[in-house]
């Protein structure tokens, strides 16, 4: 499966240059972080709280859905990633859908390409990530 | 024999890491490594570092550990070939394409698998072994049982983190930074979103920051079960941090091997470690799953300390005069400590400070000013002076 951390251009480049057909992450909640720690349980223990092990939160305009189970804690995007125009792409074995939090009727709509009332976002499709920031010095 | 492996982010730190007791160092070039915003090393500097290390009988590993996008492959083969020409002792990689490239092009480089690959089980370890990897840097989430099984199944060299900052996520499995800031966590641009506060409506913010790791109390056991290299995190740290942490672990390892380590010493060294990092640290994952005590919550208080007071540039044995480069403000009457690799740490009360013109001063206040003090115990170049906070005696 091709990573969802890529720009549209990078995805096209991979599809064009591989001999084997690829699986494409087309729609769904992106898993952002997976910790072996039970972060919500630890929070509850520390503060004597009882927050749900299925929690939504946001940092400004970035929305998260946090889920904890016996294996640890996972942060997902709360919105669904959508690779628009995916139907036009060649060399695709199949499209991968990961709608972790959609209800059944919403999922059926999505499978029929009806995205009305489903919030989607393009993640990094239209922008590449950066990693060298001039003058950024973390020296202690 | 256990290897003590130190991080270096710039040329200055190389000398201090070896001088204070590291057996090997790891560093990143100006491309292809995580910590993209450390100063890092040019090819010339890598070559010089390898020559220095080999003259001392020590080793250098170069991190080539980013997750590669197509655009990142430019010049990679040439870069790897140059590292091989310099006789770098190994590269640290996680992307399977790098390991494949080394093999296919017959580049004479040993490959160590990065912690970014998050190896926790013997089957994964075996897979990588079959690809030609000679050492695995274990995931920080490895338990003692995981390590035993991996060692028994593969017999591979195993490297384990024993000190430093932890990721909240499994290494290499986090894109929080990518999502929130557009900075690529897996190409060295991590914005450390796991250290931010996540609001919860009507309640205290959620913090997911782990405490730092220290494995002081498990070093002997780790050696006994087959860990070959103790790795310290911190390529972006200062010379004071590198020197302090390395000398502490050097002394701990040597005392454990000689069976002379006391509980009092262990406690003292732990205090010194936590103070120099300015953060709490604790063992994690080895003996149990970390709980709330292994995390920070709101109310943590990290105030940068100014313990590092001076670097010894020279010592005149005839006059007992130390020449010091000031690194933080200190004054007459302060109680300080001198430490270095070739003598025990000792306390000293500053009775006199003399400047380069021979004038007496009450305070050494200017950054990197040169000053002189009479110290009756012998010191060596590159010893350090710090504020006395803890005392072994």
What would the keywords be for this entry?
heterodimer, A: 140 residues, alpha/beta, 8 strands, globular, disordered C terminus, B: 393 residues, TIM Barrel, Elongation Factor Tu (Ef-tu), domain 3, eight-stranded parallel beta barrel, 27% helix
Written account of the structure:
The complex is a heterodimer of chains A (140) and B (393). In chain A, 19% of the residues lie in helices and 31% in strands. Chain A is α/β, with parallel strands linked by helices and 140 residues long. Chain A folds into 2 domains: 1-29 and 81-126, no CATH class; 35-78, no CATH class. In chain A, the strands form 2 sheets. A 4-stranded mixed beta sheet of chain A has the order 7-1-6-8, with no helix packed on it. Chain A has a 4-stranded antiparallel beta sheet with strand order 2-5-4-3, with helices on one face. The relative contact order of chain A is 0.23. Residues 135-140 of chain A have low confidence and may be disordered. Chain B has 2 domains: 3-170 and 208-294, Copper homeostasis (CutC) domain (TIM Barrel); 308-387, Beta Barrel (Elongation Factor Tu (Ef-tu), domain 3), CATH 2.40.30.10. Chain B contains 10 helices and 22 strands. An 8-stranded parallel beta barrel of chain B has the order 1-2-3-4-5-6-7-11, surrounded by 5 helices. In chain B, strands 17-16-22-13-14-21-18-19 form an 8-stranded antiparallel beta sheet. A two-stranded antiparallel sheet of chain B has the order 8-9. With 393 residues, chain B is of the alpha/beta class. The mean pLDDT of chain B is 93. Chain B has helices at residues 11-19, 43-55, 76-85, 96-104, 122-130, 144-154, 176-181, 219-224, 239-258, 263-277; strands at 3-7, 24-28, 59-63, 90-93, 111-113, 135-137, 157-164, 197-200, 203-207, 212-214, 229-232, 281-282, 308-316, 321-326, 330-331, 335-340, 343-349, 353-355, 360-361, 363-364, 370-374, 384-387. In chain B, helix 1 (11-19) runs parallel beside helix 9 (239-258). Chains A and B meet through helix 1, strand 2, helix 2, strand 3 and strand 4 of A and helix 7, strand 8 and strand 9 of B.
């Amino acid at each position: 499966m091709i990573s969802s951390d890529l720009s549209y251009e990078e995805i096209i480049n991979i599809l064009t240059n591989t001999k084997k057909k690829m699986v494409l992450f087309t729609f769904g909640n992106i898993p952002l972080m997976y910790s072996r720690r039970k972060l919500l349980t630890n929070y509850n223990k520390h503060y004597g709280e009882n927050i749900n092990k299925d929690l939504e939160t946001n940092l400004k305009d970035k929305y998260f859905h946090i889920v904890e189970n016996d294996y640890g804690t996972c942060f997902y995007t709360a919105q669904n990633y959508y690779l628009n125009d995916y139907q036009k792409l060649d060399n695709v074995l199949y499209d991968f859908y990961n709608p972790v939090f959609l209800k059944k009727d919403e999922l059926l709509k999505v499978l029929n390409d009806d995205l009305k009332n489903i919030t989607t976002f393009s993640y990094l499709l239209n922008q590449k990530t950066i990693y060298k920031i001039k003058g950024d010095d973390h020296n202690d | 024999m256990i290897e003590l492996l130190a991080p270096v982010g710039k040329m200055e730190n190389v000398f201090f890491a070896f001088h204070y007791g590291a057996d090997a160092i790891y560093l990143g070039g100006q491309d292809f490594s995580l910590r993209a915003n450390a100063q890092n090393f040019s090819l010339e500097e890598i070559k010089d570092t390898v020559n220095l290390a080999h003259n001392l009988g020590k080793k250098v590993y170069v991190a080539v550990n980013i997750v590669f996008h197509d655009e990142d492959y430019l010049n990679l083969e040439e870069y790897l070939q140059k590292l091989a020409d310099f006789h770098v002792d190994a590269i640290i990689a996680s992307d399977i394409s790098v390991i494949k490239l080394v093999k296919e092009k017959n580049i004479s480089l040993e490959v160590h698998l990065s912690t970014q690959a998050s190896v926790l089980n013997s089957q994964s370890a075996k897979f990588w072994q079959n690809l030609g990897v000679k050492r695995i840097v274990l995931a920080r989430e490895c338990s003692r049982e995981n390590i035993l099984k991996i060692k028994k199944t593969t017999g591979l060299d195993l490297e384990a983190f024993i000190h430093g900052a932890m990721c909240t996520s499994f290494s290499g499995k986090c894109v929080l930074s990518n999502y929130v800031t557009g900075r690529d966590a897996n190409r060295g641009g991590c914005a450390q979103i796991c250290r931010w506060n996540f609001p919860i409506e009507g309640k205290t913010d959620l913090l997911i920051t782990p405490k730092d790791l220290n494995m002081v109390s498990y070093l002997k056991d780790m050696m006994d079960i087959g860990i070959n290299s103790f790795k310290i995190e911190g390529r972006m740290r200062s010379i004071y941090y590198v020197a302090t942490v390395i000398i502490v672990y050097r002394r701990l390892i040597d005392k454990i091997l000689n069976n002379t380590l006391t509980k009092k010493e262990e406690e003292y060294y732990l205090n010194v470690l936590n103070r120099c990092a300015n953060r709490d640290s604790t063992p994690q994952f080895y003996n149990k799953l970390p709980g709330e005590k292994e995390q920070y919550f709101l109310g943590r208080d990290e105030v940068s300390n100014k313990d590092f007071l001076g670097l010894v540039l020279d010592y005149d044995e005839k006059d007992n005069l130390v020449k010091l480069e000031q690194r933080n403000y200190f004054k007459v009457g302060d109680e300080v400590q001198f430490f270095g690799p070739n003598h025990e740490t000792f306390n000293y009360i500053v009775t006199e400070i003399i400047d380069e013109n021979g004038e007496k001063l009450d305070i050494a206040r200017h950054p990197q000013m040169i000053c002189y003090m009479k110290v009756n115990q012998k010191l060596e170049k590159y010893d350090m002076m710090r504020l006395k906070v803890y005392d072994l005696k």
